[in-house]
UniProtKB/TrEMBL annotation:
Family: Belongs to the Tdpoz family.
Gene: LOC100824709
Gene Ontology biological-process entries: protein ubiquitination
Protein name: BTB domain-containing protein
Annotated BTB domain residues: 159-228
SMART domains, A to Z: BTB
The protein's annotated pathway: Protein modification; protein ubiquitination
Alphabetized Gene3D superfamilies for the sequence: Potassium Channel Kv1.1, Chain A
The organism's place on the tree of life at top rank: Eukaryota
Length: 334
């Protein structure tokens, strides 16, 4: 993550004090594949002795992210608390110069510089630059695995299985299906009859054509059906509910949650009852909880109880109706 580089500057104290601003003492240091020049000047005023540090980037670059730090060394060899630390963020897209400069200073109270830091006529200054490396990282492109696996569906190459659904034939790969779904794995590599079949027929009672198409596409691409364009609309609540049910059947948890999110995004007073029932029947507690909360909104409740979906809910899932009633009663008591 970091690429540190440090240098030790031993400065003759008397010579250093006599150097003017136009005649600095310089040292070069490399960090992150770039070369920097450190210039040191001495000044003094009423506040004390001041070591002025100038940092110049001598290499051309596009970006640089790092840290510069400098500190004095005491007579006993220990680092001084008198230090300068700065974060360096450089982006030459926003500058018109080829070199980048920075200035900082280490201030020491009057007379303390000589008494605490001068050893054998010299002061020692440690300077370091740490490159955070992010500025020269290698760009990694987005994964193409979904597209590459998806292309397998459009070619018969390597397929060893076919499904007949709604009058259409879908070619597939046993290993891909088994890797993605434990249900397919049990079906195709277990003791079930399908394990010995090269062609499996699914009836409309099992799954409809477009729902199976959506499931198979997800298995190969890991993308939600709404992002695919294969000749049908997934914008209706009924379509999302069927795909969610199929995802539950084939134990495709990610697809189930994707459909749950889409159903939640489009929920309304007209659809909340059937969506709630779908969540209950196919083990989606996240969607069920949100639908129950949505039901409790006063204006939504008035409309939802008059829909055909609510009538279906009463007939098919009376336990859910009991949950709704319990929530309503709790609100009334509260």
């Amino acid at each position: 993550m970091a690429d540190p580089s440090f240098t030790e500057l031993k400065l003759d104290y008397l010579e250093f004090k006599n150097h003017g601003l136009g005649n600095p003492i310089s040292e070069y240091i490399s960090a992150g594949h770039y070369t920097w020049r450190i210039d040191c000047h001495y000044t003094e005023d009423d506040e004390g002795d001041c070591i002025n540090l100038y940092l110049f980037l001598r290499s051309k670059l596009k970006t640089f992210d790092g840290i510069f730090e400098a500190f004095l060394v005491c007579k006993n060899g220990a680092p001084s608390s008198r230090a300068k630390r700065s974060v360096l963020n450089v982006d030459t897209k926003y500058t018109n110069c080829d070199t980048v400069s920075w200035r900082g200073e280490i201030l020491v109270k009057p007379s303390l510089l000589e008494s605490r830091y001068v050893t054998n006529g010299a002061i020692t200054l440690i300077c370091g630059i740490v490159s955070l490396r992010g500025n020269w990282s290698i760009t990694v492109p987005a994964s193409e695995m979904g597209n590459q696996f998806g292309s397998l569906l459009d070619s018969p190459d390597g397929t060893d299985l076919s499904f007949s659904v709604g009058g259409e034939t879908f070619r597939a790969h046993r290993t891909v299906l088994a890797a993605r779904s434990p249900v397919f794995r049990a079906m195709l590599f277990g003791s079930m009859a399908e394990a010995n079949m090269s062609r499996i027929t699914l009836s409309p009672d099992d799954i409809d054509l477009e729902t199976f198409r959506a499931v198979l596409r997800f298995v190969y691409t890991d993308r939600p059906p709404v992002e695919e364009r294969f000749g049908w609309s997934l914008k209706t609540t009924e379509h999302f509910q069927r795909v969610l049910a199929a995802a539950d059947r084939y134990d495709l948890g990610r697809l189930k949650l994707m459909c749950a999110q889409k159903l939640w995004e489009t929920v309304s007073a007209e659809t909340v009852a059937t969506t709630l029932g779908c969540a209950e029947m196919h083990g989606c507690p996240e969607l069920k909880s949100r639908c129950l909360d949505f039901f409790m909104e006063k204006e939504i409740f008035k409309k939802a109880v008059l829909t055909e979906g609510y009538l279906w809910l009463m007939q098919s899932l009376p336990s859910v109706i009991d949950e709704i009633k319990a929530r309503v009663e709790a609100l009334i008591v509260f």
